[in-house]
Amino acid sequence: MLLRRGKTFYCRVWVPLDMRERIGRKELKKSLRTDDRQTARTAAKLLTAKAEQFFFRARAGVMRDRELEVLAAELIGEFTGRVAEHKDNRKNVMDWLFSENGLLPPVDQDMIETTLKTPKTPDDVVYVAEWYTRRIGELEQEIATESYSRQTRYWVKCLVEAKGLNVEVPQSGWFNDPYYKFPPQYDAEFDTYYQDEEEPPTQEEIEAWNSPAPPSFNSVCLTLLQAQIDAYRHELERIQGKRNTPLQAQVLKRIEAAKPRPKLSELFEAYKDQKRTTSKWSDKTLHKYTEYMHDITKAIGNREREHYPILTSSLRRFFAI
After folding, report:
1. Hey, where are the domains in the chain?
2. pLDDT per residue over 221-259, tens digit each?
């Protein structure tokens, strides 16, 4: 909207309803620094378009952060919960390893067998603790360099596909480690193992392997690797006999926070039932507000009820346009 104060034109952009609580404003205003109407109209159109992009990025960023945190918390919860469940029920290690859950990270079978063993010898505790410590170091190195192992790349790819995540998956060459050596194959007829000769990798294969992942896929990789580290640190503390530590409390808090929240339609249905019970709404009012809610969810989506702050720096960047 174009406004004029004295000789100077201003642009006013209304903040969408679903963004007002987080931004803390109903409108955004910016001086166009001109007294020419035609120039002001052109500048206002550009500013309005940029404001719409700002709102879109803010919405997308909030949803993406929420989805990644839920994914990380699910992984931590599944891993720590699965270890605890199998310890309590004395389940077989193969049942743990091959259970149908794409969230579980790849682990070493011997380590899991030792983890689930009861009682454990001091050597068992040392072995498991050393495995977790070594693995945490390897994962931290992957995060620091953003150079992921073949195991990590395929695991994240399978999880993205299983969860139907809306991220850009890298080209097939990104997943093929040109230096990977397949293990020897067993020949039952001659009762021996043999190793196929492999050709040296091409420059194209090496470049594909070393190329960066798309930003959205890279974010999932980093999130899941950090979640693995948190899960492993949690289990490392428990294997060392530590209980009720700040890390364990934080893990429980994250798992709880990641549980599904009521959607707008569910909140409205509960509110509507309350009004029906107290007879505070007539049929006409009920119908009117039901239509309003239908229009709102159609416009902004039937999303979870969330409270995420928009940083002041984001607003400053907008006003600096």
Report:
1. 2-57, 60-257, 264-300
2. 998 899 889 989 998 898 888 888 998 888 888 777 766
